[in-house]
């Protein structure tokens, strides 16, 4: 891996500063400034990649969509003078567009397909923090129906969209859309639950993307680079994908368990059924990646394109196998 350039460190710092500005904003104008600072810092990070010929196209798509979302937020200010109730709905739709949530997901998989794995980690985790924080501020009776429809749409689109994919970045993009359905539901219940779900998803998805980045896996055909001698990395990828699917002994099950409990308490069984059925479909294409990495491995393919110490990968992904931490994570709810 090449060292970070000073400009990349600068833009990454201002990106975090933009997220922090939105997090600590006391007015919508300050929150909008934080969103713009975040956007203008992320565009150079996308366009600076030399290893992918589609990085410029992805950065342009990302800029246009984010600019449209910011314009909608600005347009809601004068509309509030005439239509008070519709202002929060417009802001909610704009934030859903900026996150890439269904039914405004059309830009997210193509952008993810054109960027590198470290950039995929950023767009799937850090870039979703500010819009989701603002969604917690605009909750009201009209927006609750919008969030419910968006949650159901994310569950269906994320599950169905990843079934016929053979590109690993698009699969994880649709996986991110599916997990967004659970996060939108957690936002409607309480902010602490959303925080736990988001942090768990960020760690688990980052561990999967780091493994795929270490071997430069972008297509199912490249899964044969997991040779039969790297059994530890193959096992870690298998269990990390199961953790993303939310199977019980692993870390990814804990936040879904909390959300399911809240669904049962609020008697929202139809909504919960949609999310659970979509989770089973996502588990299917997680298993496609995991099983392919095992079945396609044979001794002739023993060379990894990027030599990364296996100990680092194993250390990063140990968080997926720590159900003993569940009681400590539960303390955040109180």
TrEMBL record:
UniProt KW Lyase keyword: no
Source organism: Caridina cf. nilotica HMG-2016
GO cellular component, one term: mitochondrial inner membrane
Protein name in UniProt: NADH-ubiquinone oxidoreductase chain 2
Subcellular compartments: Mitochondrion inner membrane
Function text: Core subunit of the mitochondrial membrane respiratory chain NADH dehydrogenase (Complex I) which catalyzes electron transfer from NADH through the respiratory chain, using ubiquinone as an electron acceptor. Essential for the catalytic activity and assembly of complex I.
Entry keyword set: Electron transport, Membrane, Mitochondrion, Mitochondrion inner membrane, NAD, Respiratory chain, Translocase, Transmembrane, Transmembrane helix, Transport, Ubiquinone
The family this protein is said to belong to: Belongs to the complex I subunit 2 family.
Membrane topology classification: Multi-pass membrane protein
PANTHER family: NADH-UBIQUINONE OXIDOREDUCTASE CHAIN 2
Transmembrane segments: 60-83, 89-108, 144-164, 171-189, 195-212, 233-250, 270-291, 312-333
InterPro entries: Complex_I_Subunit_2, NADH_UbQ_OxRdtase_chain2, ND/Mrp_TM
Catalytic activity, EC: 7.1.1.2
Enzyme class: translocase
Catalysed reactions, as listed in the record: a ubiquinone + NADH + 5 H(+)(in) = a ubiquinol + NAD(+) + 4 H(+)(out)
GO biological process per UniProt: mitochondrial electron transport, NADH to ubiquinone
Ranges of residues in domain NADH:quinone oxidoreductase/Mrp antiporter transmembrane: 83-282
GO molecular function: NADH dehydrogenase (ubiquinone) activity
């Amino acid at each position: 891996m090449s060292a970070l350039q000073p400009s990349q460190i600068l833009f990454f710092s201002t990106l975090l500063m933009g997220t922090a500005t939105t997090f600590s904003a006391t007015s919508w104008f300050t929150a909008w400034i934080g969103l713009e600072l975040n956007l203008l810092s992320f565009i150079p990070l996308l366009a600076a990649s030399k290893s992918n010929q589609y990085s410029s196209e992805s950065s342009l798509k990302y800029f246009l969509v984010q600019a449209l979302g910011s314009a909608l937020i600005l347009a809601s200010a004068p509309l509030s003078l005439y239509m008070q109730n519709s202002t929060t709905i417009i802001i909610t739709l704009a934030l859903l567009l900026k996150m890439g949530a269904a039914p405004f997901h059309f830009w997210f998989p193509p952008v993810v397909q054109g960027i590198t794995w470290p950039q995929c980690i950023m767009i799937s985790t850090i870039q979703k923090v500010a819009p989701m924080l603002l969604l917690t501020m605009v909750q009201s009776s009209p927006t609750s129906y919008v969030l419910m429809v968006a949650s159901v749409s994310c569950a269906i689109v994320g599950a169905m969209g990843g079934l016929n994919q053979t590109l690993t970045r698009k699969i994880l993009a649709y996986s991110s859309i599916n997990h967004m359905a659970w996060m939108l539901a957690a936002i409607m219940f309480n902010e602490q639950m959303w925080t736990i779900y988001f942090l768990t998803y960020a760690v688990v998805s980052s561990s999967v993307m780091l493994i795929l980045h270490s071997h430069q896996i972008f297509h199912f055909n490249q899964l044969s680079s997991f040779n039969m001698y790297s059994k530890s990395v193959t096992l870690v990828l298998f269990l990390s994908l199961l953790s993303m699917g939310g199977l019980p002994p692993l870390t990814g099950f804990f936040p879904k368990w909390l959300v399911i409990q809240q669904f049962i308490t609020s008697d929202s069984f139809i909504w919960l059924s949609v999310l659970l059925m979509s989770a089973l479909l996502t588990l299917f294409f997680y298993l496609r990646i995991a099983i392919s990495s095992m079945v396609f491995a044979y001794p002739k393919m023993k060379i990894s394109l990027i030599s990364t110490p296996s100990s680092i990968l194993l250390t990063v992904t140990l968080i997926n196998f720590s159900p003993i931490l569940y009681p400590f994570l539960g303390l955040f709810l109180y």
